[in-house]
Design a protein that fits this description.
InterPro entries: DUF2000, Pep_tRNA_hydro_II_dom_sf, UCP033763. This is DUF2000 domain-containing protein. By secondary structure, the chain is an alpha/beta fold. It has a single domain, classed as Bit1, CATH 3.40.1490.10. Helix content is 36%, strand content 25%. The chain contains five helices and nine strands. The protein has a five-stranded mixed sheet, with helices on both faces. Strands 1-3 form a two-stranded parallel sheet.
C-alpha cells in the first residue's frame, strides 16, 4: 500500500523503552514510512556552493509516547482506517537477530498478542489526529 502526499505523519513509541531503543524504534518506523508513502520526502536541494543535499521529510514528524496496551489498541484502530498508512514495530522484531528469525517468530504469534514497541502512521490530518490525539509528546 502506498499513501499519496499525507498531511500528517507521526511516530508513537513505548515510553518505557530505554532511550536508545526508543530512538531505534522511531528510526525504523521512519524508514518504512519513507519507503511506502509518496510525498513524505522533499526534493533534493542545493546549497549556495551548488552542493546537492538529499531531500528530507517535507512534513514535521512528532514523536509521541504511549504504553504497550495503548500501542496495541492503536494498531488495531489504525488498521481499520483505510486512508492511513500504518507500520508497527514489535519487541519480537527488536530482539530478532536476523530477518529470517523475525519472520519465523512472527508466524507463531497472533496480532493481539504481539508486544508492540512503536507505531508509525501517515495520512490525512483528521484521521491521524483522531487516532493519536490522546498520546503525549515524547520528552
Amino acid at each position: 500500500m502506498v499513501v499519496n502526499a499525507p498531511d500528517k505523519c507521526v511516530i508513537v513509541v513505548d515510553g518505557d523503552l530505554p532511550v536508545g531503543l526508543a530512538l531505534n524504534t522511531a528510526a525504523i518506523l521512519s524508514l518504512t514510512i519513507g519507503r511506502h508513502v509518496d510525498g513524505v520526502l522533499g526534493d533534493d536541494v542545493k546549497d549556495a556552493d551548488g552542493f546537492a543535499h538529499r531531500g528530507i521529510t517535507s512534513l514535521p514528524v512528532p514523536i509521541l509516547r504511549g504504553d504497550a496496551a495503548a500501542l496495541a489498541a492503536l494498531v488495531v484502530k489504525a488498521a481499520a482506517v483505510p486512508e492511513v498508512f500504518v507500520v508497527d514495530f514489535t519487541r519480537t522484531a527488536q530482539t530478532s537477530r536476523t530477518y529470517d528469525e523475525y519472520i519465523s517468530r512472527m508466524a507463531e504469534i497472533g496480532t493481539g498478542d504481539l508486544p508492540y514497541v512503536g507505531v508509525g502512521i501517515a495520512g490525512p490530518k483528521k484521521p491521524v489526529d483522531r487516532l493519536v490525539g490522546n498520546f503525549a509528546l515524547y520528552r
